[in-house]
Design a protein that fits this description.
Layout: H1 11-29, H2 37-45, E1 66-67, E2 73-74, H3 77-83
Antiparallel strand pairs: 1-2
């Protein structure tokens, strides 16, 4: 049973987002020279797309900042990794 207040994510969707996170870490963060294992592990683990409104979540896996619609952006993953 899902935790209260949390929607159950279909396993295929969960696998797809996990795969997308792994690809981003490998191709867009590690490939640019990031080697901190703790930062890489955090970038692999945190489902950052969940912090966006559902109608723009698909953009989160692009390699650019994402406009949230609330006069803010969520930084590109590499920038977050570098700052971390």
């Amino acid at each position: 049973m899902p935790a209260r207040g949390r929607a159950r994510v279909p396993s295929d969707t969960k696998r797809a987002t996990e795969h997308a996170r792994e690809t981003i870490v490998r191709e867009r963060i590690e490939a640019r020279g990031m080697s901190s294992e703790s930062v890489l592990a955090a970038m692999r683990a945190v489902p950052r797309h969940r912090f966006l409104p559902e109608h723009i979540r698909h953009e989160f896996y692009e390699d650019h900042p994402v406009w949230t619609g609330h006069e803010q952006t969520i930084s590109q993953r590499y920038v977050v990794a570098l700052m971390s």
